[in-house]
Design a protein that fits this description.
12 helices, Rhopdopsin 7-helix transmembrane proteins, single chain, two-stranded antiparallel sheet, about 0% strand, elongated, mainly alpha, about 350 residues
């Protein structure tokens, strides 16, 4: 009987040991993927920044530069400081309680600032179509700087709760959200408000702005007056260049239509990718807190790492979506690369 109990205990210990090794290995793999995504994100954000100088200047284009900067700040904090130092066994944020609080405050604020910059870019595109005359008078670097500054200030104010809720974990060089700081009902209210501010509100604004933009763009294309084929032939008479002029014009119209479709697809992709990443981030955060309450530390740590990895991917993928927006952006990117290579030589 004693031998059977010992065998059962040994089997349980081996299972727990295997589970610990599995979750630790998964966390390390996620950290390595995060470092790779960080490097690729830096490259993509640099490409976005230099390409913005080759595009027709508008508030959205100017905000691309600010978005590339703040996304790079997120990559430095979440990618290099968090994943890079954790892989070598050091957590810069977890020196004491206040370093944890400040680090988490900056992390939440920078991530939220990037999200709201994407929202403001979408709103600016819609405003440009709805009230073009007013919008034309408010284009410039100063407007973009004010919008970027407003996004950052709103983000820091919205993330100030971290100064109260975050602490250093006792006996371990890690930070954690102190769920005991609030009652159960207050914690539920906080989670709902936090989810609305961080994810639901930006997604709703992004969805509305992009839907309005697509509807207004399609309406303008349909209402645009076009010459009939007969009038085009009549105006061209029997000139030898009439056919080529008509063909070139039709090609330009076809290119515009293709760019419009590409841009619409890009906006749909951005909107729903934001939704997917937001749901995934919220789920990872909830699971991390849930497993920590159950004292399953390895699983909780993995979902914290996975949440940071998703945030890094979110800050690294904007260049891909910009390239999907149409030929105009891709041509501007090629010009930017050629100019950089020319200047280097």
């Amino acid at each position: 009987m004693v031998l059977e109990v010992l065998e059962v205990n040994s089997t349980i210990d081996k299972g727990l040991e295997f589970e610990e090794v599995f979750w630790n290995s998964a966390s390390q793999c996620a950290q390595i993927c995060g470092l790779v995504a960080t490097i690729l994100g830096f490259i993509g954000n640099y490409f976005s920044y230099i390409t913005a100088f080759e595009l027709d200047q508008s508030n959205s284009v100017n905000l691309m530069k600010h978005l590339a900067f703040w996304d790079s700040v997120v990559l430095i904090e979440s990618g290099l400081f968090n994943f890079g130092l954790n892989l070598v066994g050091f957590n810069l944020a977890a020196i004491n309680d206040w370093t944890c609080k400040l680090y988490q405050w900056f992390e939440w604020a920078f991530s939220l600032a990037s999200s709201y910059l994407v929202v403001f870019m979408a709103l600016d595109r819609s405003v440009a179509l709805l009230v073009p005359f007013w919008h034309r008078d408010h284009i410039g670097d100063k407007t973009a700087r004010n919008i970027s500054l407003a996004s950052v200030m709103i983000s820091f104010i919205a993330s100030v709760s971290s100064l109260y809720l975050v602490r250093r974990k006792e006996g371990v060089l890690e930070c954690e959200v102190n769920t005991d700081a609030l009652s159960d009902s207050a914690w539920i209210i906080f989670r709902i408000v936090n989810t609305v501010i961080l994810f639901a509100l930006p997604f709703l604004l992004l969805l509305i702005a992009n839907v309005v933009f697509v509807i207004e763009l399609n309406k303008r294309v349909k209402n645009k007056p076009t010459k009939s084929a007969a009038s085009e032939k009549e105006s061209g008479n029997s000139s030898s260049t009439a056919a080529s002029v008509i063909q070139a014009k039709r090609k330009r119209e076809a290119d515009k239509e293709r760019n419009r479709r590409d841009y619409t697809k890009m906006l749909i992709s951005v909107t729903f990718s934001y939704l997917i990443i937001s749901v995934a981030l919220t789920s990872c955060s909830t699971l991390a807190i849930r497993f920590r309450k159950l004292n399953q530390i390895d699983r909780s740590h993995f979902f914290i790492i996975l949440k940071d990895l998703l945030q890094i991917i979110n800050s690294s993928s904007n260049f891909v979506f910009f390239c999907l927006s149409g030929n105009a952006y891709r041509r501007a990117f090629k010009r930017a690369i050629k100019n950089k290579m020319k200047n280097a030589t």
